[in-house]
C-alpha cells in the first residue's frame, strides 16, 4: 500500500562497442512504459559502460560497507535506492559479461532482498546460459531471481539490423508484473536492513521512522484505531478519522513518527513534535487485535526517549478523549497527570526530566500486558 513509486534499475550489461544491448534496452523501456505507469514503477536505465566501474578495487570486503572510492559510493547509492533490477545481458562463452559480475561483486547489503529479472539475447541459446550463470551469483547476494524471463534469439528478433518491436512484448510485461509482486512482498525484509531500523517486541517485527510514503498504511491504521475512540466519546469529530491521504502525508513530513511493522503490516505508531519547552506526543495507536500486549506502552516510551537529548524540552504533553478511561489509566500509570479537561478532550502532562525515572522496556524483549 505504500504510496512510494517502486524504482527498478534496468541494467545495460554489455560494454562492447556496437553491442545490441542498448537497442534491446530501448525496446524494453518502450514496451514496459505503459505497464510501469499502471503499476507505479519508475524505470531507470543504467549503462554499465557509462558507469565505468574499474575491476573491484576496494580494500575492505563489500559486506563491511566501507568504501574508499567515489565510484563505489556512487554505485552503492544507486543500488541502495532501488527496489528491483532487470539485467539486459548477452551471453559470452556460456556465461554473463565480466562487467555484470564485477558490478555485482562491488556491493553487499545494497542488493539484499530485491528481485532481479533478466532479458537475455544471443544466437543458439538466446542468452539463457548467461542467465543461469548469473542466477548462481545473485542468489549468493540475497537477490531473488525471477522465474519469468525474456530470451531473444537474434536470428528471430532482429530484422535489417534492428530489433523487431513486436517481438516478446507479452513476456516482457510478465517479467515486470512478477518483479513488482516480489518487490512488494520482500519490502519488510529490505526495510529491516536499513540504517535506523531496530528489532521490535514481536518475533519478526521491527521499528522504523515513518515517512510521507507511508501515508496509506497510516491512514488505514488511524481508521481502525480511532473508531473505538469515537464510539466511547460519542463523536465523529476526531481528526484521525477524517483525514485524507494527502493530509496524512503532510503531517508525516512535519512530525517525528515511529511505526512498528510486521510482514508489511503497520501494527502501531506514535508521533512527537516540539513546541517551545513542550514535547507533544500524539497519534498513539495499536491495531485492535494486538491490544493489551504492551505495544502501546512501548511506543509511548519510544516517544519519550526522543526528548532525552533535547535540553530545551521541559514537559511532555498528550491528549485523549475525556471518556477514554483506558487511555487515561495507561498514561497515568506512566507518570502523566491530568492537567485539564475541556469539553471532550483531556490533556495530560509529565515533566520531561522524569522520563528516566522508569526503566523503558527493552526493544525486542517479550511484551507484558
For the record, the CATH architecture of the largest domain stands as 3-Layer(aba) Sandwich
How many β strands by DSSP? 15
Q: What is the CA-atom radius of gyration, in angstroms? A: 26 Å
Structural class: alpha/beta
CATH class identity of the largest domain: Alpha Beta
- By DSSP (H or I, 4+ residues per run), the number of helices equals 12
Mean pLDDT: 89
Shape: elongated
Q: In angstroms, what separates the terminal alpha carbons?
A: 30 Å
Number of domains: 2
Helicity range: 25-40%
Helix-strand pattern:
EHEHHEHEHEHEEHEEHHHEEEHEHEE
**What does the main sheet amount to?**
8 strands, mixed
Strand residue content: 25-35%
pLDDT < 50 runs, ≥5 residues: 354-369
Describe it for me?
The chain has 369 residues and is α/β, with parallel strands linked by helices. The protein folds into two domains: 6-191, Flavodoxin domain (Rossmann fold, 3-Layer(aba) Sandwich); 198-356, Aminopeptidase. 37% of the residues lie in helices and 26% in strands. It is built from twelve helices and 15 strands. The strands form three sheets. Strands 8-9-10-11-12-13-15-14 form an eight-stranded mixed beta sheet, sandwiched between helices. A five-stranded parallel beta sheet has the order 2-1-3-4-5, sandwiched between helices. A two-stranded antiparallel ribbon has the order 6-7. The longest helix is centred in the middle third of the chain and has 23 residues, at 169-191. The model is unreliable at 354-369 (pLDDT under 50).
Amino acid at each position: 500500500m505504500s504510496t512510494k513509486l517502486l524504482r527498478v534499475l534496468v541494467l545495460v550489461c554489455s560494454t562492447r562497442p556496437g553491442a545490441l544491448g542498448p537497442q534491446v534496452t530501448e525496446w524494453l523501456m518502450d514496451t514496459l512504459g505503459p505497464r510501469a505507469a499502471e503499476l507505479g514503477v519508475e524505470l531507470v536505465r543504467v549503462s554499465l559502460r557509462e558507469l565505468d566501474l574499474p575491476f573491484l578495487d576496494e580494500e575492505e570486503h563489500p559486506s563491511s560497507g566501507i568504501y574508499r572510492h567515489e565510484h563505489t559510493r556512487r554505485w552503492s547509492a544507486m543500488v541502495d535506492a532501488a527496489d528491483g533490477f532487470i539485467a539486459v545481458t548477452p551471453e559470452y562463452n556460456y556465461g554473463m559479461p565480466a562487467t555484470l559480475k564485477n558490478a555485482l561483486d562491488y556491493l553487499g547489503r545494497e542488493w539484499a532482498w530485491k528481485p532481479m529479472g533478466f532479458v537475455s539475447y544471443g544466437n543458439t541459446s538466446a542468452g539463457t546460459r548467461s542467465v543461469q550463470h548469473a542466477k548462481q551469483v545473485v542468489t549468493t547476494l540475497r537477490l531473488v531471481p525471477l522465474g519469468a524471463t525474456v530470451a531473444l534469439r537474434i536470428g528471430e528478433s532482429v530484422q535489417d539490423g534492428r530489433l523487431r518491436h513486436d517481438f516478446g512484448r507479452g513476456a516482457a510485461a510478465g517479467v515486470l508484473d512478477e518483479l513488482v509482486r516480489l518487490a512488494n512482498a520482500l519490502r519488510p525484509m529490505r526495510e529491516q536492513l536499513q540504517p535506523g531500523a531496530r528489532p521490535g517486541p514481536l518475533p519478526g517485527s521491527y521499528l522504523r521512522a515513518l515517512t510521507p510514503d507511508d501515508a496509506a498504511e497510516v491512514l488505514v491504521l488511524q481508521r481502525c484505531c480511532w473508531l473505538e475512540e469515537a464510539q466511547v466519546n460519542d463523536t465523529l469529530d476526531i481528526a484521525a478519522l477524517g483525514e485524507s491521504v494527502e493530509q496524512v502525508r503532510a503531517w508525516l513530513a512535519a512530525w517525528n513518527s515511529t511505526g512498528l511493522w510486521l510482514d508489511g503490516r503497520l501494527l502501531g505508531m506514535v508521533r512527537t513534535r516540539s513546541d517551545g519547552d513542550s514535547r507533544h506526543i500524539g497519534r498513539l495507536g495499536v491495531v485492535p487485535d494486538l491490544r493489551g500486549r504492551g505495544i502501546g506502552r512501548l511506543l509511548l516510551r519510544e516517544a519519550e526517549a526522543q526528548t532525552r537529548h533535547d535540553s530545551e524540552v521541559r514537559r511532555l504533553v498528550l491528549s485523549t478523549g475525556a471518556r477514554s478511561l483506558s487511555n487515561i489509566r495507561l498514561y497515568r500509570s506512566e507518570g502523566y497527570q491530568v492537567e485539564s479537561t475541556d469539553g471532550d478532550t483531556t490533556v495530560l502532562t509529565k515533566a520531561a526530566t522524569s522520563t528516566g525515572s522508569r526503566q523503558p522496556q527493552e526493544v525486542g524483549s517479550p511484551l507484558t500486558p
